Amino acid sequence: MTIIDGKKVSAELKSAIRDEVIRRNSLGLKQPHLAAILVGNDGGSETYVAAKVKDCEEVGYISTLIRFPDTIQETELLAAVDQLNMDPSVDGFIVQLPLPRHINENNIIEAIDPSKDVDGFHPVNIGKMALGLSSYLPATPSGILQLIEYYKIETSGRHCVIIGRSNIVGTPLAILLSRKSSPGNCTVTLCHSQTKGLKEICLQADILIAALGKPAFLTGDMVKQGAVIIDVGTTRVPSATTKSGFRLSGDVNFDEAAPKCSFITPVPGGVGPMTRIVLLQNTLKAAGDKKQ
Amino acid sequence: MTIIDGKKVSAELKSAIRDEVIRRNSLGLKQPHLAAILVGNDGGSETYVAAKVKDCEEVGYISTLIRFPDTIQETELLAAVDQLNMDPSVDGFIVQLPLPRHINENNIIEAIDPSKDVDGFHPVNIGKMALGLSSYLPATPSGILQLIEYYKIETSGRHCVIIGRSNIVGTPLAILLSRKSSPGNCTVTLCHSQTKGLKEICLQADILIAALGKPAFLTGDMVKQGAVIIDVGTTRVPSATTKSGFRLSGDVNFDEAAPKCSFITPVPGGVGPMTRIVLLQNTLKAAGDKKQ
Known about the structure:
homodimer; 292 residues; alpha/beta; Rossmann fold; 2 domains; 6-stranded parallel beta sheet; 3-stranded parallel beta sheet; 10 helices; 11 strands; 16% strand
């Protein structure tokens, strides 16, 4: 059994990005510039955006953080998006979700210029992904594909069972893994809250991806001997043994599942660290071969 | 066992569209207008486009057929697309595929204004479909959903196995049937040429959709007792008993499969007649509440 080390892989990929930025500078190419819009003071969002800004600094990108109070009106936010769309110095940008309830998230996402949509949430990018065309892939699915590639896990012809059909993880993963590509060419079964006989379906999986957000949901008796397990869950659960009083729990009961697996991602340190790398990769792609 | 009568359902839906056009006229709303671009003289394409024009006439739409020789350059075709994009009298239009090899189909499809893309092939429409947002659905998947609805076939929690992952049938159907919607909420398994153990997977299917284009591929031993079978195949095969010398064959061995089914679509007369209706429905949607 191999534990997939997302921390190590992401560190290597990050280092490669840093080298690429140095190379770009030496060639007179534009320094990649990522902007982030943060609305309100949600604790989780603050943490995520701060991490993204820090990542940019570490690889040598320019980053811009634009903050608005949670009282901002949709029209004002749309104007801010439009300004970033038109700013040639900004290669890519994100609007950190969730947004306050009075703002329609779809309207905001659809207002982003698809060529700057480094989160890969715009319908054009989702559609291109489904059609197998070049696009910005969403962070978690792309990070998982890269882990699979790094560990040379065979996917072609294998049965992949995905639990969870969210727009940003389960559904795009199902599309990507069933495509004629590598990684890809899986027979994919997409399961969700309405699925019946889940255990029997999971027991058929060569590759099992848990992305439903229920701590330790996937138990050992749902795992076929030799399966690959990708755990996307990251739920905060109370803990008596950590200083903060909580720990991150995956969707997989690791202790039960791990002995049966060929490969498994831990939580934390598996899929999580990869998602931040994808944002950097997408921003690099957005910068393309623009000159300084 | 019930034979799903696509001819009957499509005739009813067509009649409802005709009534709606009369109602629109009486309210001073715009007469729907579908345009079609046909490049070259491919026999199949000629037949399909002629049928679409005839459908328009029958329901009271305006139709415009724009023909180009197969020597047309991509830039000229893009200019023609742009003209239709800007023509306020045209509500929706299609570019009949396939196009000659020297033209990049993706470039043409992406040039179509998504709000006039009544084929539902533009990445924006595919992406919106994946995100559960309002869009133009592609003809075959939408036609199948409507047959399922018409016959009140339960989909929620049922296992749907789809054979074939094309961009216009299998992949969008997998997305649509796994969504939280009705019809929908299926556990979907998407199979294709690389799938191993296909028979065992098919035997689990409550709903089995064959869309791979191989005549009589799905045999009786692959069908679970009581399954619903949707046959998307329409391949011309030689026939000694028809005047034309050929007949249409589905992907399902009907005689073997039918006795085991609860519902089954015949070929011809099942899914096929529905696809033309969807184009009319999408054009009606495109016309919206525009005044004359």
